[in-house]
TrEMBL record:
Keywords: Sigma factor, Transcription, Transcription regulation. This is RNA polymerase subunit sigma-24. The lineage of its organism: Bacteria, Bacillati, Actinomycetota, Actinomycetes, Pseudonocardiales. Belongs to the sigma-70 factor family. ECF subfamily. Residues 178-277 form the DUF6596 domain. Residues 18-78 form the RNA polymerase sigma-70 region domain. Residues 109-160 form the RNA polymerase sigma factor 70 region 4 type domain. InterPro entries: DUF6596 (IPR046531), RNA_pol_sigma70_r2 (IPR007627), RNA_pol_sigma70_r4_t2 (IPR013249), RNA_pol_sigma_r2 (IPR013325), RNA_pol_sigma_r3/r4-like (IPR013324), TPR-like_helical_dom_sf (IPR011990), WH-like_DNA-bd_sf (IPR036388). GO terms for molecular function: DNA binding; sigma factor activity. GO terms for biological process: DNA-templated transcription initiation.
Amino acid sequence: MSDVEAAVTRAHRAEWARVVAALTRRFGDLDVAEEAAAEAFATAVERWPADGVPPNPGAWLTTTAARKAIDRIRREAKRGDKYREARLVQDDTPAEPPGAIGDDRLRLIFTCCHPALATQSRVALTLRLVGGLTVPEIARAFLVRESALEQRITRAKAKIKAARIPYRVPSAEDLPARVSSVLTVLFLVFNEGYLATGPGTDPIRHDLTTEAIRLTRLLHALLPDDGEVTGLLALMLLTEARRPARVSAGELVALDEQDRGAWDTALIAEGHRLVRERLAAGVAPGRYQILAAINAVHTSARDFRDTDWSQVIALYDQLIRVDPSPVVALNRAVAVAELDGPEVALAAIGRLEDQLAGYHAYHVTRADLLRRLSRGAEARAAYDKAIELAGNTAEVAYLTRRRDQLR
């Protein structure tokens, strides 16, 4: 990859959401914003090799995209009305509610997560327009077909236009009802960065985890007393703290093999403080707060062998009452293997096979348990299935090595 191609790639990751959000604020049309942004990046691919990378790629892309949007509006059959409407949005954007945070991407998130949209559509649309994820990446996150995901996004944008959903941060009384789907979006964006699934992408996309943390910090500033916002921020920080130790020589490093001295102690300290803050509140915790507490236990142990597995299992038991999903049961079984042995855990995940047959982490867990039980042939088959389903290059390298070490 040339230096210019690398610059375009970096600009796409860093500036896509900013460009789309700025155009949405100016023109009030998600289709116009997304298509104009895509055209601007296509223009960059053509012109930057000859003209050089501009000093401020984000400003160049936003200006170019705005010109593309205006050109499109003027070309429309009813360009007069649309152009006047666009100018109205540009010049007379309604004021935000008192105390709202003036961030274009945050406004865009709340627009995409409006209650008028189906929950899955809110998440998919926001991942596309704010997270900058591709349709294949989002489809993998949802475990759905790409064609179905594309239709979901198209219908969501049409609904926003037809219902004239406003582009702004909701008022204070509307925020609690709206924040849950926003947290789901941010968590999925973070997860895609934590273990990237796109072909040709870095195995860990620091740009996505950083963006998810930044927007979650904004939400926390807006809703400091919301336990789940605080919990999600703590969860992200404690997970991000382990990033420096998670990949080595292009291969994923499992938690029990990570160099804990490489973990970010500042992020761990902040995450632990937020977890303690929620415990002191004396309010029954939600899903993200419990997940953060589980990660606090892991990051409190100086060595993997020092992990308080009884506490981890107790927290998973609490989480299952809040979120009785097969994925939670699978993760609980991983902890059970450390406390009660791999045979007990293998029996527990056997009950999840029908629900998680297409989920690569199920086969990763099963392969590891079978390996520990010296059931080599079965472990190899499970590793093969996990490798087939895994989309992360570093994880595939790790799984391949573990499979090839089997006798």
